[in-house]
């Protein structure tokens, strides 16, 4: 199956592999060769995500406020890039936010910017979980994530900032930290102070983003082939399991049928044997003699002959019924019953 055929049959595939809905959505995105590279900014409320985006874009396209603003995906296209300001990790409407964040992080994004405010110090459990998940995703798909330490201008002094960087470094391992100050950068731009711009850390972050964006086409190709290969392998495994299960069930059904036929045949043969003697035509058939009212309490030859026939018939019926019961066929479903 080609990748094009795969996506055309996505509904059927998701019935078999429902756990891969996000992967299939991502494959649809990757199939669009004209799609712009997507940069998503994630982080907690009031950690400076929107302000950072505005500085990177060079325009105030994202709303900046001291109250919770981002409860849905905010998108902007600028200079050949799509920028997404995702809901905060601690936003209010949790289920909706999770859905938006999942869409941004795992379906839309080529690059994820993880934002953390310097004034908060170390990462909390939710942020560490996200970092670990992004790291695992990079190992599998090569998609890039960049960690940005924002609002460094709000830290008391250089020594305090270095302590924060040291603590974060221990939590982040090999992931590089990019300290920035959006306020310092804006002031440098508005007042034409190159030193402020340089010290803001924004130019260094922009350089990192440029290098990362240059890798996007190759990473997309790797990611697409990796996902397609993974899903193809899982579909092949499911098919093998289904084939093996079908073969096993067919063998069971064939064995069941053989055993049923053999047991039923044996019962019929035994019943025929039991009935053979009784069914032989006697010289005098007493069973045809109905008797009279005077014989009601008397054991007559007619009664004896009729009793032997009934007993032999009942035994044959019991033999057959025991086989039907053994194989679960003692009763018929309503749709298979017919009138007498």
Written description of the protein model:
With 340 residues, the protein is α/β, with parallel strands linked by helices. It is built from twelve helices and six strands. It has a six-stranded mixed sheet with strand order 2-3-1-4-5-6, sandwiched between helices. The longest helix is centred in the C-terminal third of the chain and has 64 residues, at 216-279. 23% of the residues are buried. It is rod-shaped and about 135 Å long. The protein folds into two domains: 3-236, Rossmann fold (3-Layer(aba) Sandwich), CATH 3.40.50; 248-330.
Brief synopsis:
The protein is an alpha/beta fold. It is built from twelve helices and six strands.
The overall number of domains is 2
What fold name goes in the CATH topology slot of the largest domain?
Rossmann fold
- Uncertain regions: pLDDT < 50 for 5+ in a row? 92-96
Order of helices and strands: HHHEHEEHEHEHEHHHHH
Portion in beta strands = 5-15%
The dominant shape is rod-shaped
* Tally of DSSP β-strands: 6
| CATH architecture annotation name of the largest domain | 3-Layer(aba) Sandwich
Level of helix content? 55-70%
Q: What strand line-up does the widest sheet have?
A: 2-3-1-4-5-6
Sheet with most strands: 6 strands, mixed
Q: What Rg, in angstroms, do the CA atoms define? A: 40 Å
Looking at this protein, list some descriptive labels:
340 residues; 58% helix; 6 strands; rod-shaped; 6-stranded mixed beta sheet; Rossmann fold; alpha/beta
